[in-house]
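Pasting two entries for a bug report.
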Amino acid sequence: MTTFMLTFVIFLLAVSGMALGLVLSGRRIEGSCGGLNRVSGMDSDCGGACRRPCPRRRAAEARRLGL
């Protein structure tokens, strides 16, 4: 039982640390179309949307890159 409790506390600390880091960084959680989308011959989960970002996304990326 001690091993279970110690493991639970370690996982709780790890998850809390990641959540705190996300909150303090001020960024939001974003998904990506990476993973299987990058493997040739596999269909994308996002229907190719990452290859054709919307104008709002292109403008945000341009601002982020300083263009």
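Entry 2 (this is the one that rendered wrong in the viewer):
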Amino acid sequence: MTTFAWPIPTHRLVALAGCGLVPAVIAGAWALVAHDAQASLPAVSALVALDVALLVVAIGDAASRRSVRIEVSRDCPPVLSIGRSNSVQLTLTQSRGEVLTVWLRDDAAADIEVDGLPKTVQMAPASQAVVRYAFKPLSRGERQLGQVWLRWSSRMGLWQQQRGFALEQAVRVYPDLMALRTRQAWLAPGREAAAARAHRQRGGQTEFERLRDYNQDDDVRRIDWRATARRRALMVREYQLERDQRIVFALDMGRWMTAESFGIPIFDRALNAALWLGQLAVQAGDQVGLLAYDSQLRTWLAPQGGPGAMRRLVRSAFDLHASLVEAEHEIGLATLRTRLARRSLVVLFTQVLDPTRRDELVRVVRGLQPQHLPVVVSLRDESLEALATAQAWTDPDALYVRGAAASHVLERERIATDLRQAGAIVVHERAENLSSVLVQRYLDVKVRQLL
């Protein structure tokens, strides 16, 4: 659908209209000096004639180039990654007309930044122009793209003709999928086996995978003497971690998860860490599931493995956002009790700051055992810790601030201690370390066969 908008006056038209003010001022000043109104009549008549002529010319120029026919199409991927530059292409086709300098703009959506626009392109008659730029979404969810606007000058340059093209398209803004692809080093084949060697446990039983040459850092107990005798070289047995285990990511969508860490909502950081670990788990042959809740259950995805597991996980989570209601952890526990019969690793992302909510969380963690293995993940508040560890201040008010910050940090450490005593594995880390530390905990659970 094409929208024909009113032409926009240019600086040239404004300047021409302003030229009529000069004779008007002169005629008025002459009439005041001569004390004769009749003396200014010729000048007024000339001014009126000038204005009429300017009006006729402006109207005629406004009608020029209104019949220009330009077709516009937008090539945008249906799935965009949040915070990344996603390539978009506009194709402009002029079937007939004349040489034009076209200015274009893409309205996109309210929370999508447009990089590379507005810009101008030169178009010849019966020609096509391709314009490339990028969308940078700022939040996840489904978005409806807006209009594309074109402008070009009238023949005399007194107006800018403008036209809008309703190229409506629904796009989905997913978490940072490009970042997941750049972390393939974590997902390289055999990495879980390398982790097993790095986290050896005495007497651990794993599944035999293959024989390989002995390395200096290998455990001598893994040497296969029969194979060594056959090959006349030291050979060791390499084992792989147990596969087909279940991991459920439980996402707290309550009000504490709406806070931001370096400009990014804590919930988004939790979701990114869950997707990274989920991709590693699927690559390792495990099954992944999702539970999201605030004051009620929002999403439940039963654990699944295979090639489509990550696609299902991302589709279930891309439109989830934390809300300003209090999270009810008992809802998550009840869901897991009724829908998750097989023992699983339950990774709970939450942010408990209120001591009154601590008891509920500890009770939920205890309720998950011994059927499941709980891992509680939370972010450290680096700004608060900086206040608590700052140098002593002479300002009394600043001392109170430092004391309050230190008390808050100690309360968080108490909560983490209570959760560990309740049997949970606690990951309480800074934002930049969260994903990597969480992956290490997962590998440690696999190696130690805690599931």
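Dev reply: Rendering is fixed now. As a check, the viewer should reflect this: The chain has three domains: 10-62, 69-175, 246-448.
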